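note to self: dont lose this again. the chain is below, predicted strucutre after it. 299 aa total, dont forget to put it in the shared folder this time
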Amino acid sequence: MRTFVGLTERTWVERVAVLTPGDASLWRPHRRRFRALEPGEPYLLKLHAPWNAIVGAGRFVAAERLPLSLAWLAFGAANGVVDPAELRRRTARAHPEPTAVDPLLSCVVLDRPAILDESDWVAVPDDWRPSVAHGKLYRGDAAHALWEQVRGRLGARWSPTPLDGEPGPGRFRLAVADAYGHRCAVTGERALAALEVVQLRPAARGGPNRVENGVLLRADLARLFEHGLLCIEPEGFVVRVHASVRRAAGGATPYAPLDGRPLRVVPERFDLLPSRELLAEHVAASRAWLAAPRPSVAG
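---
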């Protein structure tokens, strides 16, 4: 058995504890890919000094090198920050010299990270040294004993997804972004900071975290899609924009030319194309909502 004890910022731990995300990105502002664990092995979270304790764990699922904007698109606040501006500030503090506009981050992706109450924190092993820069790998009996101690403290909070189960929401969004070549399906827009992943059937209604249930859209088009004012027809992947969006008091809007056009970007792999069944479901739900009578507003 192997387990890795990784140094972690307290702010990251506190924000992830509040979010309880399906998956999270423990990022570092450098290009080196994490290679210490195989998927499924436990990653233990140790706070920086002066808190010399292990405070939680997550099951390691992947190591990614992502542009900052793609890390935010995929994991959002599950990067342990409140917004992308904070992510940029913290990256700049770690590397104060001039960096790229969209710097690469080394991201350790953890499935269902679980955080201990402070009264349950676990002391680090006796062989831990203050000089450890990023973390330390434990093997064999030492790894097993340490993991059993942390696992016992976590109790029911440790509930990882089966290895062959659906990915967490962050990995789902990352897979959708990759399938569309990091481009908006409708316009071809490439600016990652302007893109969002939408689900054809939202997770709140049982939508699966599979690429066929997602589309990458420019943020304004994502809002229209979620409001049912933009749909994608299952046959031919034709975009339909509601009349109220196509026209305004001054005439046609910039959205008018999008109506009736097929998607500009689709996944190359057939099995990653948007589900026609789920597209039809979204179209039907949107049309039903738009056709529903509106209550009168008292003047």
